[in-house]
């Protein structure tokens, strides 16, 4: 089953519980925003209060990332719990809001225990007519859940800044230069060139 299409009138009073397999293409995720193996497993609970729709769920998949230290590609298990609220556009008729109900047996996520309308504005989405755009919301959740500095493992030793050897595989024997990255080598060489250039200019003036 692919990403479900939800409309306001299709949600019964007792709500919905849905599971499906979702492909990366359905969420319009580009390769620069993430690459995932075999798509995602999606589980959601949906309930409706007037014309407000509350969606609580979890998205599970396996991301292919590149380690920032050793530059190797690795598999990263991803489990993204989320909570989203869909409301009519500003200016449209909306009945008084009520506190969101929570399906029995589901523990609240830390970010979801604040009161309605306080601190959760980032998770509020606008209804497109009577349609709930799950794809846009899920895409945003994935992007927000992407680590800024992906690591294949917490103790990754990275590449030697002198010779480029992967130090997870073997020690290269290079002396510790105190440089934190291969780019530091370039900065060091550039600094030396500037000093030499300055010295040459000073000699010419004397």
Provide an overview of this structure:
This protein is α+β, with helices and mostly antiparallel strands and 206 residues long. It folds into 2 domains: 139 residues, no CATH class; 50 residues, no CATH class. It is built from 2 helices and 7 strands; from the N terminus they run βββββββαα. The strands form 2 sheets. Strands 2-3-4-5-6 form a 5-stranded mixed beta sheet, covered by helices on one side. A hairpin with a 6-residue loop joins strand 4 and strand 5. The longest helix is centred in the C-terminal third of the chain and has 24 residues. It starts with 5 loop residues before the first strand and ends with a helix.
List keywords for this structure.
single chain, 206 residues, alpha+beta, 2 domains, five-stranded mixed β-sheet, two-stranded antiparallel sheet, 2 helices, 7 strands, elongated
Structural class: alpha+beta
Q: Helical residue percent? A: 10-25%
Tell me the number of helical segments per DSSP (H or I, 4 or more residues long).
Answer: 2
How much beta, percentage-wise? 25-35%
What oligomeric state best describes the polypeptide chains here? single chain
Distance between the termini: 81 Å
Question: How would you describe the shape?
Answer: elongated
User: What is the number of domains?
Assistant: 2
Q: Which spans of ≥5 residues are poorly predicted at pLDDT below 50?
A: 94-122
The topology string of helices and strands comes to EEEEEEEHH
- Summed over residues and divided by their number, the pLDDT gives a mean of 78
Cα Rg? 26 Å
Strand segment count: 7
Characterize the largest beta sheet: strand count, sense, and whether it forms a barrel. 5 strands, mixed
Strand order across the biggest sheet?
A: 2-3-4-5-6
